[in-house]
Design a protein that fits this description.
heterodimer, A: 12 strands, B: mainly beta, 7-stranded mixed β-sheet
Chain lengths: ~120, ~120
């Protein structure tokens, strides 16, 4: 069965620090998709990234970067030079079964950036 | 703008009543939609897959008679919480996939249900 583990329940850092959010997944599927979403206090989900299992290239988007390692079943997310607006709950997610759209979420990491 | 819209955004009802939540895809058709439930400070739990023109597929542990799902058109799925109780109070979110080749997945804004 698929499973996503985000061991860090809450993280608090001072603004401008770098922070890494960990995500470990379990799946028996050979083809799967991994996601990161941001959920600010308003509740809506903000899409950050989707990565398929055949693409292990790390990705950088501005201050955000992702490290996908199939060997350790991890898909970690790093925010460099954090800002107060980055404060939110971040969810890592994994596709379930053959559908890339049916996804299950990890428990989330609540990130607080202190000014 | 939002490509998946939910209505209502929030609803308060009395225990024992039924509440309907709509999930509508805007400007695109969705033969499949997904419903999630999120309790305060918890993760999103997949409840069911809504299939246009056929029965919904429920995840293990989700009561199908309690959470009625209807996907009557290519742009609308509804979730009805029947005989709601305070423990059903939660944030309900739907999602719909966009065009297959894009891999996009759109989430609604969510509907917050409070049962008194």
């Amino acid at each position: 069965a698929q499973k996503v583990t985000q061991a860090q329940t809450e993280i608090s850092v001072v603004e401008k620090e770098d922070v890494t959010l960990d995500c470990v997944y379990e799946t028996r599927d050979t083809t799967y998709y991994l996601f990161w979403y941001k959920q600010p206090p308003s509740g809506e989900l903000v899409f950050l990234i989707r990565r398929n299992s055949f693409d292990e290239q790390n990705e950088i988007s501005g201050r955000y970067s992702w490290n996908f390692q199939k060997s350790t079943s991890s898909f970690n997310f790093t925010i460099t030079a954090s800002q107060v607006v980055d404060s939110a709950v971040y969810f890592c997610a994994l596709s379930k079964g053959s559908s890339a759209s049916k996804i299950i979420f990890g428990s989330g990491t609540r990130l607080s950036i202190r000014p | 703008g939002a490509v998946v819209s939910q209505h209502p955004s929030w609803v308060i009802c009395k225990s024992g009543t039924s509440v309907k939540i709509e999930c509508r895809s805007l400007d695109f058709q969705a033969t499949t939609m997904f419903w999630y439930r999120q309790f305060p400070k918890q993760s999103l739990m997949l409840m069911a897959t809504s299939n246009e023109g056929s029965k919904a597929t429920y995840e293990q542990g989700v009561e199908k008679d309690k959470f009625l799902i209807n996907h009557a058109s290519l742009t609308l799925s509804t979730l009805t919480v029947t005989s709601a109780h305070p423990e059903d109070s939660s944030f309900y979110i739907c999602s719909a996939p966009g065009l297959a080749h894009t891999g996009e997945l759109f989430f609604g804004e969510g509907s917050r249900l409070t049962v008194l």
